[in-house]
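Section 3.1: Structural characterization of target chains.
Under the original work plan, the team committed to producing a structural model for every single-chain target entering the pipeline before any wet-lab resources were allocated. The record below documents one such target. The sequence was received from the expression subgroup and is listed exactly as submitted; it comprises 622 residues.
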Amino acid sequence: MIKHVSVIISALVASGAAASEKVVADTARVLDELVVIESAAKAPVPLLPLDVRIVGSDVIEKSTETNILPVLQNHIPGMFVTERGLAGYGVSGGAAGAVTIRGVGGGNKVLFLIDGQPQWAGIFGHSLPDTYVSNDVQRVEVVSGPSSLLYGSGAMGGSVNLITRRAESEGLNGSLRAMAGSYGTMKYGARAGYRTGSLKAYAAASYERSDGNRRGMGYWLANQYASLNYDFSSHWEAGANAMITETRADNPGSVYRTLPLDMWARQVRTTASVFVKNRYDISSGGIQAYYNWGKHKIDDGLDDNDMPRSYFFNSRDYNMGVTLYQTVKPWQGNDFSVGLDIKHWGGRAYNTDKTSCEEEPVTDRHVNEVAGYAMMQQALFDNRLGINAGVRLEHSSQFGNEWVPQAGLVFRPMSSNRLKFNFAKGFRSPNIRELYMYPPHNPDLKPERMNNFEVELRQWLPDKGIDVGMALYYINGDNLIQTVRQNGRPLNVNTGKFINKGFELDFNYSLSRIWSFKASYAYLHTDTRIVAAPKNKLFGEVSCSLGQWQFSLDAMGIWGLNNEETTQNYGVLNARAAYSVAMRTPLMLFVKGENLTAAHYQINYGFPMPGATVMAGLELRF
């Protein structure tokens, strides 16, 4: 295996070194800003038929959110995120932060990545929402629909790639932020970047805590991030980064329980990577190695008889791998991308007696995955038509081989409009919890699969500041993992099937330098009951900039949201105001209010969301 990998690395590097300099770029609208986006890590942007949306730094900064998930939910029409209270998502029982895109989600069906590194918990297959801290993030690239061709298992319903910050300006620059508000909530953040010539260094740290909107629902989080990059030349770049997040979330349990659950969960997550990239006229690519590690300790509170449990649950999981990718241009208008992914993930779970501290093993497992993919994109008729096709073969030590095809086209009748057609397969391999843990486990499970058919139409009217789009999709999924009863006991089996279909609309209007408007609507129809996937989602925002003042008002309406027991319909209204003080060192003062109408609703059943809340703070930039 090592010999084969060495040969592939040598071939990729040689193909890049033989070419001349040029950056492949695509002009794309990043919500509030029109920017130039460099080629995506694994494939060029311009001809991709996928529904890719980019949330830029301007949107992230204006939100003043410390977690990236609320920002994405507002600006990605078909995305929904579960919440349980004012701050923090938690893990294990009573946790939130599950993400669905177009009704597909939960159980790691939407893959989160940090700079292209896949993120998931190897033990109980839970998403890791508390680690997605906005203080470290420059922009987010979201794919609605399968992106398993590029990323493999877990990207069945879509992918969310968090691109971390780097020092781009010469010298030292950064910011300090502090805010406080309802329910004893306090949030602090600091970041700084330094660049001198070809060397770039960046560091960020944040801390937040809250008493929560219910007694026994406290939460705190500490996050640190650092990166170092060096440009050897205009063609070659190398870098490394590391992140560590530690958090604790308390869980009082459902309000419908006769006694509080008194549960808590503490987790430590670490991720690190190193990379080398090359960029030339007819070839670009790179190699990246990463290692993610997590440690969890959980007190599950009371048992079914409302007695305190005698043990703590513990787990340690890891996810490591190497990814290689290269794109070459064999002839005019053609991009041919190839890649190799090698993954090794798993972990150990055990219970610790609260009195004797003796360990009782639960499971100790790992999975190896090796995948290769190839994708070709061809531009025709002066780039008015782009044709895309690709295939991935992934081999798992657990479930064998999985083929993943993708095909589509991009048609641009004029420079101001675009039409996309796309077919893509998505899949998700079962996690260790489903395979080996607790009574429903089944080591014979196979991957979940779905086919996605999509059409997207987008129209720009630059002279009028208008950007409007519509997407229609049809999803056919099968082999879903469900828990059924066989011979009197629960068992995870591949039985489930579903059909999701719907459409999404979005509208952006920059009326002037002062006023701007955004609106989006997502409709989902499914033939089965899906938790945390609303039938209707409507979002609108009005922004106003008057000199040193900034104001925004936004509202979200949700209809037909299923939680574990009921169907919810609700609407929330939020507002924000900020004032920039004219100083040598810029200072911004801000205040924001959420759920200003104090709407009553539950996303996680038994966990009422807080009423009206207020936060105020300041940010100093240098």
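The CA atoms of residues 339 and 609 lie 44 Å apart.
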